[in-house]
Amino acid sequence: MDARFTAEQDGIRLALRELLRRRCGPGESRSAADTPAGYDPELWTALARQLGLPGLALPERYGGVGCSATELALACEETGRVLAATPLLGTSVLVAPLVLALGTDAQRADLLPRIASGSLTATLAVPPGTALALTDDNRGDWAGGGRAGGVQARPVSGPPREDTTSGGTGAAPAPRGGWRLYGQVDQVLDGHSADLLLVAAHAGGFARSRILLFLVAGDAPGLVRTRLTALDATRPQGRVQLRDVEAELLGAEDGADVLGALARTGDTAAAVLACEAVGAADRALETTVEYVGQREQFGRAIGSFQAVKHRLADVYVQLQAARSAAYFAAWAAVHEEQRVGGLALAQALEALRTAAAEGIQLHGGIGFTWEHEAQRYFKRAAADELLFGPAHRLRAHAADAAQLFERAEVTV
């Protein structure tokens, strides 16, 4: 493994950092999170047109840039630094890889170019930690096994419809007969605003249930979406209710390893999230160091006190360890050497939580207030742990997958 950045990777990072510096300051980020959509469409358009960010990891034949998930993760380190509120995670990190891996040729040709251009936003409607195999084996109860709950799918027989497109909002023409979905999914990233939803649903009845993925247009009849109050306003979430909603099956019904594809996507997403958390932790530490160099107590800057130096040094060491783990996970996700995204995410989230907590304390009486930026970074760490973790469960699942404790018992 060559740990050095390529010229292309450096160029992507620097160009994105400059654009975000000009267009995504603290005030703009707060204002974007407070909009009904939860993000700034103008910023999203700029990221798509100037940098091709939504299609960074998509092949060129679909209008993408042709880079890998490694470059996408490095780009998300920059968006994490400013807590940019964008639909990038749901659209490009979760949905696009699944469409590329499982979709039919027609579905790829219809959806991926629009995702790459930024004209189509999408999200994955699943329980994140379990379905993406980050905190548990996604082949367990969530995948069926005779249990009800979640979202159910039933096939509908009938003649093909002449025109079942969704008016440009996401779904391609439905196959003969089609499917209908009913159920509810909570805590869906951008679930209230995405143009297209990729919904995981049980099919085949309770006794022989299996998980399939379905495309649902954002304006489909019977689809009810509600924005939820989230701990982190820059990571908007929605509740999705499907009341006998028409849907299109992603790919073929037989032969597709849906759970395996979700697990692979989850590992890549964890690496991307780890890089994003590292960027946020780096910025939190940077602002704290700046502040302790300016604030004076007893006639000297508090940053000159040995106790403060030690605390910030500990944060720096933890941050650098998390950065190394995140970069390795981003590399491994592409080269498929091993799945270490969950471990990297656990370390990065802990580094972000520590950096943000120390920042709040060392900023004194203003650190925890709504007006200051320090509290936003702490909320990002806590919110991501609630969605994708927590850290101890990420590590426990990685240990189980590696059969770590079983090996220890045999050795003893």
From TrEMBL:
Entry keyword Oxidoreductase:
yes
Recite the UniProt keywords alphabetically: FAD, Flavoprotein, Oxidoreductase
Q: Where is this region: Disordered?
A: 143-176
Cofactor(s) listed: FAD
Domain Acyl-CoA dehydrogenase/oxidase C-terminal, residue spans: 271-400
MF terms from GO for this chain are:
acyl-CoA dehydrogenase activity; flavin adenine dinucleotide binding
Source organism, top-level taxon: Bacteria
Q: Which residues form the Acyl-CoA dehydrogenase/oxidase N-terminal domain?
A: 6-118
Q: Which SUPFAM superfamilies match?
A: Acyl-CoA dehydrogenase C-terminal domain-like, Acyl-CoA dehydrogenase NM domain-like
Cited PANTHER family? ACYL-COA DEHYDROGENASE, ACYL-COA DEHYDROGENASE FADE28
What the record says about family reads: Belongs to the acyl-CoA dehydrogenase family.
What is the official name of this protein in its record? Pimeloyl-CoA dehydrogenase, small subunit
Question: What is the protein's species of origin?
Answer: Streptomyces sviceus (strain ATCC 29083 / DSM 924 / JCM 4929 / NBRC 13980 / NCIMB 11184 / NRRL 5439 / UC 5370)
